[in-house]
Amino acid sequence: MSVAIRIFVPQDASARSVGADAVAAAIPARHSGIPISVVRTGSRGLYWLEPLIEVETPAGRVAYGPIDGGAPEVHELLDAGLLSGAAHPKRLGDITTHAWLESQQRLTSARLGIVDPADIDDYRAQGGYAGLDAALSMAPADIVRVVSESGLRGRGGAAFPTGIKWQTVHDQSAPQKYIACNADEGDSGTFADRMLMEGDPFSLIEGMTIAGLAVGATRGFIYLRVEYPHAARALARALEAARARGHLGRDVRGSGRDFDISVRLGAGAYICGEETSMLESLEGRRGEVRVRPPLPAIKGLFGQPTVVNNVVTLATVPVILARGAAFYREFGMGKSRGTILLQLAGNVKRGGLVERAFGITVNELVYGYGGGSATGRPVRAVQIGGPLGAYLPESQFDTPLDYEALTQRGALLGHGGVVVFDDRVDMARMARYALEFCAIESCGKCTPCRLGSTRGVEIVDRIVKSANGTRAADLALLDELCDTMEKGSLCGLGGMTPFPVRSAMTHFREDFERS
Amino acid sequence: MRPDAVAQAVDAALAAYAKEPGPLLEILHAVQGELGCVPPEAVPLIADGLNLSRAEVHGVISFYHHFRERPPGRVVVQVCRAEACQSMNGDALADAVRQKLGVDFGQTRADGAVSLEAVYCLGNCACAPAMMVDGELRGRVDPARLGDLP
In chain A, which residue's Cα lies nearest the Cα of B86? Predict the structure, then answer.
């Protein structure tokens, strides 16, 4: 009996949304007498080629895609010699040599699309748990020092130095400390957290475990948005496997230290991506923002010292521990060290996940990787950093994607989402939408956000209609309102909604003065 | 909704989660998972079980978009209305879905067959426009091909 040939089919939610499940279901147990086994992986993030499948051959994995024709296309491929990696119009060859992927510097996402997310042995065989191995032989303070020296900053959007946060929690003396992972990835245009949780969940679990050892926390929570049911299932399976192998739970790997993780589901509130609101929600309350200080690192979840980090941040910790702070710091520019997981989305020909050292320009991303708009029309704007991020006009596409460079241009990197718009976009409408979204999602605790957002929508409507010829006055009023929201709001929702609004007014003024 | 069904769902949720720290959201998820919603009759039972006021429980239910007080239609259709989907003509998709289902966002059709909800990002932004039908994610949705919706 011959060994089964393995075919890799993504179980990533996006890949499934365009037919990956139908492809997997159509692959028979045998073809021409040869046994086949299907392995469901994450996605490599070349989403325009999804569903992308790979077959294992003696010469390595051979990719085919996009397999969007369902079962008939699968059968046609099998008949054409898929199992031996034979020629076919959909054959892509060794996908790792595809320029789109080869030019990337994948550290955090190195195993995405390759590893079996349900198989802890596969994770280990591909370098997984090397970071925890290293951490287990170190004093907690030394783990914190490595993370500090790596230059890692929070990838959730605030870009706060992770090492400083960990140090603060490490230095507290408390009966209980927590690691709270923010997996409430609500920004439009972002999906890196989702991809990691679905495609390489052990990397997040390993990162949280290292964080627990470093700061002396014995309990971790993953606050996962309810819109990610596939990630919830992948995490549940991985957590179970990690516990069964002694990587989690009592006496982690015989270290004498305890650490375990629970997944808590959010309930469709964007504001719960804000860290203090997330903590309120984890405690079972309305997700209303807390006034800082005290910082969560000192008084966080249930009043105890808490590390709050994003999924990407925590999933990056293992590679830093495994390969050293110096290795990681060598990537990047200025104060932005390491790599950033950019998510290229919206109206773009080749969207997906681009992990690169900080510093590539918007041009390289949108035209080099993205190939321009999906519709083939001229690109007019990108929004960087989610619904609270600024819109950049094409004249500023030379901006490097790094925290400081974007700040200088009145923009921000946020969680690394970049949404592309073609020339049919109405920027006054996008500004209105930003305010409307803020009104829908405001927690209501502070007035500038709760009322400012609704008044802002009304002002944009007046500007566009130019009723009574008050446009100039209303534009000035909107600008003033943005000031109030920016300076007077308790958190980033009200405080940053002015970014998209003002950038639209500044760079695309003509859209406000049409009628 | 039958009072015993509500009591049973609440009791089961309390038994499973009441000892966890900060369990209210977990309990609401469990009740909604069982009954399709968190009916008003469940509020005093949950409040009693957790030693909270009814106002506190109601306040949490009303804060989160996900929790509903009435059962939804037999099929729940969610259409993403966020920026990345807008950039791929998500407005046309939203209009087409509205027309096909014969209901507006936030409504359940009179025959109880379907509810339509707006969502803000399904994390499918590289395959926009996106929607979810009963938990099944769909990407690159063509507004002209919605034939299988009720």
Answer: A346
Measured between alpha carbons, how far is A122 from A119 in angstroms, rounded to an integer? 5
Q: Does domain A5-102 have CATH number 3.40.30.10?
A: yes
In degrees and rounded to multiples of 5, residue A153 shows phi and psi of -120, 155
Q: What region does A334 belong to: left with phi over 0, alpha with psi -120 to 50, or beta?
A: left
CB-based burial label for A121 (10 Å; 0-12, 13-18, 19+): exposed
Q: A427-512 in CATH: which number?
A: 1.20.1440.230
Find the DSSP H helices in B37-137: 42-50, 54-63, 83-86, 90-101
List the alpha helices (DSSP H) in A126-274. Answer: 130-136, 140-150, 162-171, 192-199, 201-215, 229-244
What single-letter DSSP state applies at residue A303? G
- Using CA atoms, how far apart are residues A476 and A496, in angstroms rounded to an integer? 18
DSSP state letter for A378: P
Strands (E), A438-498: none
pLDDT in tens, A26-40: 999 999 999 999 999
Question: What pLDDT, in 10s, does the model give residues A184-230?
Answer: 999 999 999 999 999 999 999 999 999 999 999 999 999 999 999 99
Q: Do B67 and A267 touch (CB under 8 A)?
A: yes
Q: Where are the alpha helices (DSSP H) in B51-86?
A: 54-63, 83-86
Cβ–Cβ contact A377 with B under 8 A: no
Contact B124 A13 (CB under 8 A): yes
Choose among A279, A288, A290: nearest CA to A184. Answer: A279
Cβ(A196)–Cβ(A108) below 8 Å: yes
State whether CATH 3.10.20.600 applies to domain A332-422: yes
- Cβ count near A175 (within 10 Å): 5
Instruction: Establish if A471 touches chain B: CB-CB under 8 angstroms.
Output: no
Q: Which residue in the set A193, A264, A285 is minimally distant from B60, CB to CB? A: A285
- Domain A120-328 coded CATH 3.40.50.11540: yes
What is the average pLDDT score of chain A?
Answer: 97
**Which structure tokens are listed for A352?**
């997906």
ipTM, two decimals: 0.97
Sign of the alpha-carbon torsion through B46, B52, B53, B57? negative
Residue keyed to tokens 């509020």: B43
- Measured CA to CA, the distance from residue A296 to residue A293 in angstroms comes to 8
